[in-house]
Design brief:
Blueprint (H helix, E strand, L loop, with lengths): L1 H36 L15 H6 L10 E9 L6 E9 L5 H11 L21 E3 L2 E6 L2 H4 L5 H15 L7 E6 L2 E2 L13 E2 L8
Parallel strand pairs: 4-5
Antiparallel strand pairs: 1-2, 3-4, 5-6, 5-7
Helix pairs in contact: 3-5
Length: 206
């Protein structure tokens, strides 16, 4: 009689173990299925290196990896401040996007003899250049205006040195100027800068 009870107890225990195992397997399958159905919104949560070139270009970001050599086309005024002269400059791209690199190199001034500076050396960007719908928003510190040398020709050369250089980059068609986050109406009182400024090829020498 004792032998029979032991067998029954063993059988019940085995049945309970099997039931518990089945329940665990079902729960695992349900969790795996629900995780597979969860999708992140398009373009969100992607690592930077998995984003498409289209996504990067639409935000004005460079598609070049850090450490790559890139040749920028910059424009500086001639000695008479009548025309802008093209200067090709090879730089190494770090973590800075190309529009910001263009502004930084313009601030450094020309390397070609006979050309003049177009931006005061005290000027700097207060935030990265933002590109939306082909418009580059360039936000300078106040020294961009207060340290400028003035004059109608000087203002013209500065504005189009920046605009013509930035519009050499793919995806940029015009430029909006800001001073510490606020729209710039005029740099030196001779040009209306209240709207986007487009490229002016007539000022380019040759």
């Amino acid at each position: 009689m004792w032998f029979t009870k032991e067998r029954k107890g063993t059988t019940v225990t085995r049945h309970l173990s099997l039931v518990a195992l089945v329940v665990v397997l079902v729960m695992v399958i349900m969790v795996a299925g629900s995780a597979g159905c969860t999708k992140s919104p398009s373009g969100e949560g992607k690592p930077e290196d998995e984003r498409t070139s289209e996504e990067k270009t639409s935000e004005g970001e460079s598609t070049l990896p850090a450490g790559e050599k890139v040749t920028l086309t910059l424009y500086f005024p001639d000695s008479q401040a009548q025309y802008l002269v093209r200067e090709a400059r090879e730089v190494t791209k770090g973590d800075t996007d190309l529009p910001d690199l263009v502004i930084q190199e313009l601030i450094k001034g020309p390397t070609t003899s006979g050309l003049g500076a177009s931006i005061p050396k005290e000027a700097k960007l207060v935030s990265p250049v933002k590109v939306e719908d082909g418009v580059a928003y360039v936000d300078f510190n106040k020294e961009f205006q207060t340290k400028h040398w003035g004059g109608s020709a000087g203002e013209l050369m500065t504005v189009y040195s920046i605009v013509n250089s930035l519009t050499e980059l793919e995806g940029i068609k015009s430029v909006v100027f800001l001073i510490e986050g606020k729209p710039l109406d005029s740099l030196a009182g001779h040009m209306d800068l209240t709207g986007p400024v487009e490229r002016n090829p007539d000022l380019i020498a040759g």
